[in-house]
Design a protein that fits this description.
With 454 residues, the protein is of the alpha+beta class. The chain is built from twelve helices and twelve strands. A hairpin with a 6-residue loop joins strand 9 and strand 10. The radius of gyration is 44 Å and the shape is rod-shaped.
C-alpha cells in the first residue's frame, strides 16, 4: 500500500508540474513526428531502392551469364575464381535436392522480384539461404543448365529495420534533449515567480525578477516587482501608523488611569474603571500584535526549551492554573524570540480563560515539547492542551479567524478574539505548522510543529 501511495504521489507530481507537462507534450509530438517521418521516407524511397537493387542484380546476372557463355571451357574455373575473389559473386549449379529458404516477405522484396523477373524471365527464383549458406540467391539459365548466383547481402542491402530504429533513436534522443531545454526555458520564469511569491509568503523580500525576455514574461515580472515595492511601502507605512496608534491611544489611557487614581471615587468604582482601562490597553496590544510584521530574514536560534520552561513556571504562579510540563532539554528553533514568547503566552492565556476543568475552578494545563524524526525530517513538536469543555468539531476552524470568540462553547471572557489569530500568523511566518483539535478525554489540544535550528 505504501508503494502504491508513493507511486501515486510521483505520478501526481508529474501531472501537476508544468515542466513535465511541457516535456511530455513535446516528447509525444516529437516521437509521433519521427515515426511519421520514418514511415513516409520508407514508403517514398521503397520504389527507387527496389529499382536500384533490381538493376544491380540484373546487371550482375547478365554480365556473369555473358562471361560464362563466351569464355573458353578451360578458362571457366579461373573466371569463377576471379568472380569470387574480386566481385564476391559465386555461381553454383542448381540441383533439385537443394534446400531452399524463401526470400524475406517484405514489400521491398516483392518489388525487386517483380522487376528482376520482368527482365530475366518469370521462372527466375530467389532465395535467402541455399543449403544452409545465407546470401542473396537468384537463379539463371545457360542453355538448359540452371545455376544459382549468390551475391553478398551487403552489396544490395539498404538501411535495415535495425538501422532505421537506430537512427530514429538518435534523432529521438536529440529531440527529447531539445524538448527538455525548451521546457526549462518555458518553466524558468514561472519557477522564479513561484519562488519569489513563496518568499513573500514567508515574510522575506525576494530579489527583483529580471524584466527581460518575451513581452508577456517581461510585463508579468515588472508588475510583480512593482507589487513587491508597493507591499514594502505598505509595511513601512503600517509600522508608522502602528507607532502612532500606540502613542495616540495609550497616552490618553495612561492619563485616564492617573486621573482615576487621583479622583475621589469609591473603591468599587475605581476598581471597575481601572479594570476597563486595563482591558482597553490589552485590546490595543492585541491589535498591535496582530498587525505587527515579522521579517524572516532576522530569525536567530531560539532556546525553545528554556522559553517553555519559563512559560510553565509563569503559568504555575497564576492563581487557578495547574501545569503539567514535559519539556525535552536543549531544543532550539529559528525565529523571533519575542514573537514565539507571545505565541505561547497567548496559548496559555487562552487555556486559562476558556479551558477550565468542568466542575472545578481550576485550569489543568498540559505543556509538552519534544523532538521527533531524524535528519532532514527532524521537527520540534510543542503541544498545549487543557481539560476544559473543548470546541464543537464544526467550529474548530473558526477559532483561527480574527475577532472570533466561541463564548457559548468555551465560557465568557473579555478579549478581542485575536489571541489564536495572532498565534496562527506568527506560526505561519516561522514556516511552522499549526494543528487545532479536541483533546482525547475533553479539552482543546493545540500542536505547533517547527523546524529545528541549524
Amino acid at each position: 500500500m505504501a508503494e502504491h501511495g508513493t507511486l501515486g504521489a510521483r505520478l501526481g507530481w508529474i501531472r501537476s508540474g508544468l515542466f513535465w507537462r511541457t516535456f511530455l507534450l513535446l516528447g509525444v509530438l516529437t516521437t509521433l513526428s519521427i515515426a511519421l517521418w520514418v514511415g513516409m521516407i520508407s514508403y517514398v524511397q521503397r520504389k527507387p531502392q527496389a529499382e536500384q537493387i533490381a538493376a544491380q542484380v540484373i546487371s550482375v546476372v547478365t554480365i556473369t551469364h555473358a562471361a560464362l557463355t563466351h569464355s573458353a571451357p578451360e578458362l571457366r574455373r579461373e573466371l569463377l575464381f576471379e568472380l569470387v575473389s574480386n566481385e564476391g559473386i559465386r555461381v553454383f549449379p542448381l540441383e533439385v535436392t537443394d534446400e531452399i529458404d524463401p526470400p524475406p516477405d517484405t514489400a521491398l522484396m516483392d518489388d525487386i522480384q517483380a522487376l528482376v523477373k520482368a527482365k530475366l524471365g518469370s521462372d527466375t527464383r530467389f532465395s535467402a539461404r541455399v543449403n544452409g549458406v545465407a546470401g542473396f540467391w537468384v537463379s539463371f539459365k545457360i542453355d538448359d543448365d540452371k545455376y544459382w548466383l549468390m551475391l553478398e547481402r551487403e552489396r544490395i542491402a539498404g538501411l535495415t529495420g535495425v538501422q532505421w530504429v537506430g537512427w530514429a533513436g538518435v534523432v529521438g534522443l536529440l529531440s527529447l534533449l531539445g524538448a527538455a531545454a525548451i521546457s526549462s526555458l518555458i518553466n524558468l520564469p514561472l519557477a522564479r515567480l513561484t519562488a519569489a511569491a513563496r518568499d513573500i509568503a514567508r515574510g522575506k523580500r525576494p530579489e527583483p525578477l529580471p524584466e527581460t525576455g518575451p513581452t508577456e514574461i517581461c510585463e508579468a515580472n515588472r508588475s510583480f516587482n512593482q507589487m513587491v515595492d508597493d507591499l514594502q511601502q505598505l509595511e513601512s507605512d503600517r509600522a508608522v501608523i502602528l507607532a502612532g496608534i500606540s502613542h495616540d491611544l495609550r497616552t490618553p489611557l495612561a492619563r485616564m488611569g492617573l486621573e482615576v487614581e487621583m479622583a475621589d471615587l469609591s473603591p468599587d468604582a475605581r476598581g471597575g474603571m481601572q479594570s476597563d482601562i486595563a482591558q482597553m490597553d490589552a485590546i490595543i496590544g492585541q491589535f498591535l500584535d496582530f498587525a505587527k510584521p515579522s521579517e524572516a530574514a532576522g530569525f536567530t536560534p531560539v532556546d525553545l526549551s528554556g522559553m517553555l520552561e519559563e512559560v510553565a513556571r509563569s503559568a504555575a504562579r497564576t492563581p487557578g492554573v495547574r501545569v503539567n510540563a514535559r519539556i525535552e532539554p536543549d531544543l532550539a528553533v529559528p525565529g523571533h524570540a519575542t514573537d514565539l514568547q507571545r505565541v505561547f503566552n497567548n496559548l496559555v492565556e487562552n487555556a486559562r480563560r476558556y479551558g477550565r476543568t468542568p466542575g472545578t475552578e481550576t485550569t489543568d494545563l498540559d505543556l509538552s515539547c519534544r523532538a521527533q524524526g531524524i535528519g532532514p525530517l527532524r521537527r520540534i513538536v510543542v503541544e498545549v492542551a487543557d481539560h476544559g469543555p473543548g470546541v464543537p468539531p464544526g467550529q474548530i476552524e473558526h477559532l483561527l479567524r480574527p475577532f472570533t470568540r466561541l463564548d457559548a462553547a468555551r465560557g465568557q471572557a473579555n478579549g478581542a478574539g485575536l489571541g489564536l489569530a495572532i498565534v496562527e500568523r506568527v506560526v505561519a511566518r516561522h514556516n511552522a505548522e499549526l494543528q487545532v483539535r479536541n483533546r482525547d478525554g475533553g479539552g482543546l489540544l493545540i500542536r505547533i510543529v517547527l523546524p529545528p535550528a541549524p
